[in-house]
Specification:
Length: 219
C-alpha cells in the first residue's frame, strides 16, 4: 500500500485547486473538483501516469464542477460522485453561473452518477474516505475524510485563515460555522487539509488562530 498523494492543478479564473488524489505506488486515484481547464487536468494526469477511477465533487459551484462533464468524457465515462443532492440546483445552473460571473472558458451543467450523504464511504485501492455533509457555503457541500492519512479535503468550507463565503444562493454563515466547529475541528488538530483556494494547512492551526473560529474547543 502506497502513500496518499495530492497534486494540485489550479483551474479557472477563480484559481480553484483542482486536486488529483492518488496512491503513489499503484498510481490509481480520483480527481476532486475539476472546475474547468480540462485540458490541463488531463495533461497532469498523463504526466503523473495516473489511472483515474472517478470524479468527486465537493459542491456545485462553477469553479469546482464546471469541467466535470467534459473530464468524465475525456476519461472514458468515469463516474461523477457527489456532492449531496441539496446542491442539485447549483449543478443544473453552472452555465447560468458562467454568465453571471462573466468567466471565460467552457463550463457545462453537471449530472452526478451518485449523490453523497453524511457517513458514506468512498475510496480507491486501499485508501478509504468518509463523507461528511458540511452545509453553509452551499447547501449540499461535502468533505472527504481519510482517517488513516489524517487528511481531509474541505472544499470551500474552510481556508487557511478564513472560511467560505456565504453570500451566494443557498449560503448560510451560521450553518457554515456550525459545520466547521461540529464536524471538521473534532477530527483532530493534527489533520492536514486541502481547500478549494489558496494554501492548505492543519486543523489545529485554524482552531487556534482562524479569526472566524476563535473560541472553538479542541477535539
Ligand atoms: Zn464554492
Ligand atoms: Zn470555490
Amino acid at each position: 500500500m502506497g502513500q496518499l498523494t495530492a497534486e494540485i492543478v489550479p483551474v479557472t479564473p477563480f484559481q480553484q485547486n483542482c486536486c488529483l488524489l492518488f496512491d503513489d505506488e499503484t498510481r490509481v486515484g480520483v480527481v476532486v473538483d475539476p472546475g474547468g481547464d480540462v485540458d490541463r487536468i488531463v495533461a497532469a494526469i498523463d504526466r503523473l501516469g495516473l489511472s483515474i477511477e472517478a470524479i468527486w465533487l465537493t459542491h456545485g459551484h462553477i469553479d469546482h464542477a464546471g469541467g466535470a462533464m467534459a473530464l468524465k468524457q475525456a476519461l472514458g465515462g468515469v463516474a461523477i460522485i457527489g456532492p449531496h443532492q441539496a446542491d442539485r440546483m447549483l449543478l443544473e445552473r453552472i452555465e447560468e453561473q458562467a454568465k453571471m460571473f462573466g468567466v471565460p472558458g467552457t463550463y457545462a451543467n453537471a449530472t452526478p452518477d451518485r449523490w453523497l450523504e453524511e457517513g458514506d464511504e468512498l475510496g480507491f485501492g486501499s485508501h478509504r474516505f468518509t463523507v461528511l455533509h458540511c452545509p453553509g457555503h452551499s447547501p449540499g457541500h461535502v468533505v472527504f475524510v481519510d482517517p488513516d492519512a489524517r487528511f481531509v479535503h474541505v472544499g470551500d468550507v474552510l481556508f487557511a485563515g478564513s472560511v467560505g463565503r456565504t453570500d451566494l444562493p443557498g449560503g448560510d454563515h451560521a450553518a457554515l460555522i456550525a459545520s466547521i466547529k461540529m464536524k471538521l475541528l473534532p477530527l483532530g488538530d493534527d489533520y492536514g487539509f486541502i481547500c478549494g483556494h489558496g494554501p492548505g494547512g492543519r486543523l489545529g492551526e485554524e482552531r487556534r488562530s482562524n479569526p472566524f473560529l476563535v473560541g472553538a474547543s479542541s477535539a
